[in-house]
Amino acid sequence: MKSLNTFKSKYAQNRFIKLLTLTLLLFYLAISTQAGTLDPTFGNGGYVSMRVRNSSDVVGKLLIQPDGKILTIGASDLGQSPTTGYRVDSLVIRCNTDGTLDTSFGNGGIVLTDLAASSRLISAVLQPDGKIVAVGAYYGVNQQRDFLVVRYLSNGNLDTSFGNNGIVITDFGLSSGGEQSEVVALLPDGKVIVGGSSLNSIVVARYNENGLLDQTFGTNGSVIVNLDGGSFTRTLIVLSDGKFILACYPFTLVKFMPNGAIDTGFGVDGRIVLPFQNIDMTVQDLMLQPDGKFLIGGGARGYFEHSDYCLSRLNSDGTLDTTFGVNGLAKVDFASNHDSLYRTKLLPNGNIVAVGIADCSHANQSVSYIAIGLYETDGRLKSKTIVKSLGSNLPSALEIQTDGKILVAGHSSPKLFVSRFSNITNDVTPPLIYDFDGDGNTDFGVYRKISGRTSWNIPLSNFTFTPYTLTKEFGLDEDILAPADFDGDGKTDLGVFRPSTGTWWHSWSPGPASDNFRAFQWGLAGDVPVAADYDGDAKADYAVFRPDNGVWYINNSSDGSNRFVKWGLAGDKPLIGDFDGDNKCDVAVWRPSNGVWYVMRSSDNQFTFFQFGVNGDKPVEADYDGDGKTDFAVYRPNEGMWYVWKSVSSSFNAVRWGISTDIPTVGDYDGDGKFDYAVYRQSERLWYVLKSSDNTYFTHQSGDDSYLPIQGN
Question: Among 131, 554, 650, 680, which has the highest number of CB atoms less than 10 A from its own CB?
């Protein structure tokens, strides 16, 4: 404790309290901008989560009423009962605009429909009179599935004028497993078209306003179409001329005449098998644009087991719209194991919102997050975010409010959830995270200099099913390691700075298929590379600190402009961090001679001077409390102590973690958004990590004793 007392006395000697009073007001006023900003006026910080009964609940569809109230359509699992056996009941919930339950609807805002057998709702549509038509599956004898159509009054009661007291169950006699309704559309005359599936067939039925099958449609009110390779109906779109299109999993669009006959003038015999099957794209959604073009969303498989978000656009005649994306296709890698787009919607300005999952599973942990992409009208990605703050979720429904706010609903076992976002902005990769595969976890990367070359060895943690270690020679013996996310895809790129030529060399998103690299001249011999995102475009900028004149030289990736900032002296340690939480790295140094941190805040170009540490300490700046701001922190080797000033609580923390010969390797190894205390012990080839998520520790062995950790060097 002697050194800690000495440490505290230095605060007094440097008038710590006075400095803090002068600087903290401005320093801590900056609020972290969360990518995919949750609307704090909705639910609990933008998120509503509920569990209707003791088991689990799921969501199939969201609807927004003209008064702004929100309907959630799905099912509630009753679980196993000794009297009824296993049961699932149809579920409708109505919330007010602020996310609270609307107690004027059903029983306190909730309607459970008991059909004396299992049932679930998958989709729904609102009638102009406020009635709700919902469709799904009824599980009869031996769990045989039948079409289910239910109509509710605007107060949640069953509409007894429809079918049998508000319920219609239709058995079309197909296959041993039966059939289920999955999509529904309302016609101008009040009739409804319902689409569904049965093994390798799709079924379309049209019902009159009273719930009876419309005998003028198809054969006795229904049409059955065989599709090879399996089928699930994903979307039903009714066109202005009364014709309608069904989007069917995995690759098929089918167009019908108003009377149920196949429109043979569309594609081949009324069908279009999407023209990019070689990409192995699955179709999850179809959307009609105001100009008559069709937007298709799903997942396109990439290398190994990885799949990417995929959007494509067809012209009104079904041909590929090559003006969209790249030759009609827009693919986005959300930097996870498996990305899949589930739902798409248009914003009032014509931009496209897509929601799905980013499977960031790693090691023995299965985690899927909400992934949201915002696209320009021509398919160019505008911004994307993986919403980790809400934990593991499976989104299944998307709606856009009239004010442009975005509603996303789904399942977060065992609860259902509804969330609202006010905008979608790019995820910002935390400085110094060293996440080479983009799963949100720091990777255990090591390197060594051998035979005049720099050899990298990085186990990529997001390759859950096929473990993959990136082993690559990249750089020369003289090079200084400078990895960063230069292309803004959420993955750290291999990077080096070559002092003899002042040249940067970096790869693009390392992976099994990546051999691309770029060279850029920026700097001189003696410069210290400090690549980071200084302009807030989610891409690392080429930047160096020149100790002999104390100038920072920054090349902004957003527009190619240059910035020169005099900030520091010879002997100062340049820092990489976002100390004010504005998603831009600040120009900052730590001065060993007096232990003072000198920060030029990018948010307002004002200064923060903060005394923290003594000569001999190693600065280990990072976001330890998860508030989006880099914290002042030092590692004291002779004590094996970490000293951290946490910005979220303005509190001091001291943790013993390491020995004098350890190399501090700070990073977010557990992916919880908070950096962990970590060291690498070269003599044992072991990493020691104290996890911030649960305060437990683990070790990881990597390389041999000729390797050094990438982080910390």
Answer: 680
